[in-house]
């Protein structure tokens, strides 16, 4: 059994989840085990990180209205366009942009985002930098990570605890950068400025190869987020050996604490 949750609190909306669906595989974009440790049900060993849903206008061929700019035409070295949310990494980026306004675009969006940028205008700004900075917000992930791939800027992850979709098979070192959140300052811009455009082009090319996995496309598509999720689910069939409520016998049978095989386990409640 699997269940999809759209936010990190996830299964805690179902207060008795630990009794009834504790062995379910949870699908969630938020793999946050730090800020809300008392309210998150996420378990990195069994649950699946799913991509956030990017704007259809960026991903549907017939409506793709945001075209990447050549690297030589991009105004900024890097950008961060988003709410500060009172989070230190985001506040540090805002201050850094004040020191280096010609290199880093980072407006202080302290009020509703729609009042500052219309969605398409936001993407026009997003594409105008070589690097898209992805600091953590209220949780470890942000939709900006996925959006960066469709304007072809290199994501720079500033979220130390982040877990990414399909990370067992995708080598994120080939097309993203992960930088310590404790090292946000001029040294970050100096490092990004030192990277040759040829390396950026290589990283962007790799990113274009995998970005289809962020799109919730139809079944007819050869590559989509759903294909990736189904693959992850297949990998997890009867692979619960690390649970304190899981036991196994000499013949490989996996059982619960009452020695009932999981294949025969019936939850004590009607399921839809």
TrEMBL record:
Membrane topology note: Single-pass type II membrane protein
Family affiliation: Belongs to the glycosyltransferase 47 family.
Species per Swiss-Prot/TrEMBL record: Xanthoceras sorbifolium
UniProt entry tagged with the keyword Coiled coil: no
Domain Exostosin GT47 positions: 34-184
Localisation: Golgi apparatus membrane
Keyword Transmembrane: yes
Name of the molecule in the record: Exostosin GT47 domain-containing protein
Segments traversing the membrane: none
């Amino acid at each position: 059994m699997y269940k999809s949750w759209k936010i990190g609190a996830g299964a805690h909306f179902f207060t008795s989840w630990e009794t009834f669906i504790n062995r379910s595989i949870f699908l969630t974009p938020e793999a946050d085990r730090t800020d809300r440790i008392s309210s998150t049900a996420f378990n990195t060993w069994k649950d699946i990180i799913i991509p956030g849903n990017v704007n259809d206008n960026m991903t549907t061929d017939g409506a793709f209205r945001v075209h990447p700019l050549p690297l030589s035409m991009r105004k900024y070295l890097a950008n961060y366009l988003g709410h500060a949310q009172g989070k230190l990494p985001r506040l540090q980026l805002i201050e850094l942009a004040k020191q280096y306004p010609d290199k880093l675009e980072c407006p202080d969006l302290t009020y509703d985002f729609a009042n500052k940028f219309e969605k398409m205008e936001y993407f026009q700004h997003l594409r105008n930098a070589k690097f898209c900075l992805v600091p953590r917000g209220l949780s470890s992930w942000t939709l900006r990570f996925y959006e960066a791939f469709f304007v072809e800027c290199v994501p720079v992850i500033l979220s130390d605890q982040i877990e990414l979709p399909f990370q067992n098979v995708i080598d994120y070192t080939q097309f993203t950068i992960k930088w310590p959140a404790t090292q946000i300052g001029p040294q970050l811009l100096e490092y990004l400025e030192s990277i040759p455009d040829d390396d950026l082009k290589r990283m962007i090319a790799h990113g274009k190869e995998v970005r289809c996995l962020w799109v919730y496309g139809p079944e007819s598509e050869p590559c989509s987020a759903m294909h990736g999720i189904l693959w992850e689910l297949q990998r997890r069939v009867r692979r619960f050996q690390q649970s304190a409520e899981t036991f196994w016998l000499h013949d490989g049978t996996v059982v619960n604490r009452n020695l009932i095989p999981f294949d025969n386990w019936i939850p004590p409640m009607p399921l839809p």
